[in-house]
Amino acid sequence: MTPNPMPTKLGPGRSTVTEALLSVVRDPVGRLIRDWNWKSAVLSTALHAPIFFLINLSAGRKAAFGVLLTELVLRPLTSGIYGSLTEALRDAEPTWLAGLTASVLMPFANHSLELLVHGLRGTPKLAHSILASVCFTVFSTLFNLYAMRRGALIVGENQQSLAQDMRRMPRLIGGFLAAGPLTIFRLLKRRGTRAIPRRPEPGLEVFNKEDWSDAWTINTRSAGHRRNEALS
Hints:
With 232 residues, the protein is mainly α. The chain has helices at residues 17-26, 28-34, 38-56, 61-88, 95-121, 126-148, 162-167, 169-195, 209-231; strands at residues 15-16, 92-93. It has a domain at 15-167.
């Protein structure tokens, strides 16, 4: 994989989202062409092409096979490039911003071209096809970023074989699906912990300035009253 020679604010191996995107702008050939993510191309084509085929099947087999052929030609070229762009964001921080950037940038770039190509060729169920493809792309892009941050579905340096990546899929999919609920649970637990007041230990009650003033007044009055009783 093409290394990033520019220093980053977050130290070696990490970068901000802006730095990650700038690294692509500075070296688009290296980042998007030489580091073309063939794994994303293969998996995306295998998943997207059937979606287009099934949605357009109601328009006839001939039309559906025409749409399928278009996806088999278009999808590997674009998905490999967009997979490389997602991979460029895998070390970017904060994680939520990298995910948001990928889930917005990828569908916009990907489906703008897809809409143009399928519109020109006259895909029968164009609106339904693009809508289903966009929804799937948002989900798959977030999953790809999640997997890439854990060393799967990457190309170049430190890559594993596609077979090794696929063996890790059940655990990666489970972790990805659980990530959202676990994050919400941790946030609620953290807020609940902050909301519970700390009970002072017996004899170590904490007073603010007014409390100390009132306590001093009460104690002074009590001491004076006891002296008056003793003198009488």
